[in-house]
Amino acid sequence: MPARVRPVRIDDCTSIVLTRGAACTALLLVGACTDAGVPLAGVAVGTAALDLSHGAPCAALEGRGLARRYEFAQGHLWVWPAFPRAGEEVHLAYDSVFLVDNSWTTTGVDVRLSDDGWAHERDVSLSFACSSAERAEVFAGELGAFADDTTLELAIAHHARAYWGQPGTAWFNNGGGNFVLGVGDPEALTGRTPAGEPLVYVVGGNLWTTPEGCDAGCDLSSFWVDLSVANLAYDKQVGVLWSLDGWKTHELALASFEHDALGGGREQWGVDVTLPKGAQRDSVVELAAFATMAGQSWLDPRGQLLRYTSGRIVQVGAFPDILHDQADTYVSVATDPPGVWSEVTLHWTENDGPEEHAVMRWSARGAYDNWLYHLGAKPAGTVVRYRAEARHLDGSLFVDDNDGPGYLLEYFAPASLDWVGNARHWPENGSIAAGGSLWFNVESSPPGRAFDAELRFRVDDTDGQTVIMTRDETPRDGNDHFWFRLDEVPAGAHIQYAIQVRDRAAGLFWQNNGGADYHAWVND
């Protein structure tokens, strides 16, 4: 990790090398980069659902008001107030997704911060706050107060140690763009929500891709929100602040009075917003409600997130991914958002025969609805092509057919490898020219029994990468030969790598230099 966090892709580094010898259980480090020079070790990683916007499991984090929420593959980050004013203390909480167990422990979490475009920077240590029900660790701290019109940029360093004592640091920086927060009033909202029921808050809302009056082909999106407002004055202005880019920019939309039948002296106001052209299924709207009355403006202390209701099929796949005639196969489909689907149907053919279909079984609800269908085992030589169709409650049909050809499953007789070896790179160390190409190689035998070969590598202390190596069409010297070419290697770079080969009986064969990994050095 360089001393200065620059917009390079750090937080999405995936599938860094496993293993510390054959006796060590293989665990996978997803989305984390260990320090350079340390053998690439593994840690179990999961996801954690912890919503600090609606009450945290830590008393010290309660009462923070509207929190700005960042979600990334490895966890969550909350900063509050969502719209800090000049001189107002900025707080931060980070939700770790490293599992707390005997094989991996967290040793600390730091925030690297700059308020002048990285001309200067400083690190702030976060303190352990609590553990969520999902066993995720939560760390929190204060970043200080800042002048008006300041732009803060943040990155998170998660320090951990494996059970054998090797240290590691995972950096998360919003896909290379850092986490960005502006200081200053977005709309000069001077009021503060008192204790108890907020004076204004969202009671309902949704986002759809074909607004009323628009034909199905319209490239438009809209959202509606209903607000509950305390009737403290006859004259009032009610509306929402909303953003499509995580509050880097925002817009204002005013609401209209609908009725006063909510009880308790509260009124319902509604707002409808048409989003910019192109904001369709992948749009996520963040919003905060406000009301101005009796000389004050009040902000809803709870941020809201609206996802499209027209939905999408998020993922289609089958498991296990190595299929032989003894493999008990399941097809899985994930749909978003949860709770709005009437059914999901699987369509498939076997060996180009007549198409069959079956309604999939709903299996779980979390961030998505998940659906399963049990295909069972198939004889070796069977080829299955399939697609998924998801029916929305509003009648809309969504199809995922892999852009036309459908998804493919091929069954074969299980076959084990006898040998994997000759892992090497070319040119050899001392002859690797800066700006040239570096070839990685591995071999296996007997030929035809390897399912695939994965190269896992990183360049210096940047993000780790995983690639599927190319198999030569014909065996070489009686062995299958796999290779990958890395072009334009930088001068003086240190490239650390290991290779995993899987056979057609689901066996794993690692080439990782006895747990120390292989190392290539590029000439200056």
Can you put this structure into words, describing what you see?
- With 524 residues, this protein is mainly β.
- It folds into 4 domains: 52-182, Immunoglobulins (Immunoglobulin-like); 200-307, Immunoglobulin-like, CATH 2.60.40; 312-410, Immunoglobulins (Immunoglobulin-like, Sandwich); 419-521, Immunoglobulin-like.
- It has no helices and 36 strands.
- Strand 5 and strand 6 form a beta hairpin.
- It is flat.
Overall number of structural domains? 4
Distance between the termini: 20 Å
Task: Tell me, rounded to a whole number, the average pLDDT.
Answer: 75
CATH architecture descriptor name of the largest domain: Sandwich
Q: Give the helix proportion (percent range).
A: under 10%
Give the full name of the CATH homologous superfamily of the largest domain. Answer: Immunoglobulins
List low-pLDDT spans.
Answer: 1-57, 187-195
CATH topology of the largest domain: Immunoglobulin-like
**Alpha-beta classification:** mainly beta
Largest sheet: number of strands, sense, barrel closure: 9 strands, antiparallel
Question: Helical stretch count?
Answer: 0
Please state the CA-atom Rg, rounded to the nearest Å: 27 Å
CATH class category label of the largest domain = Mainly Beta
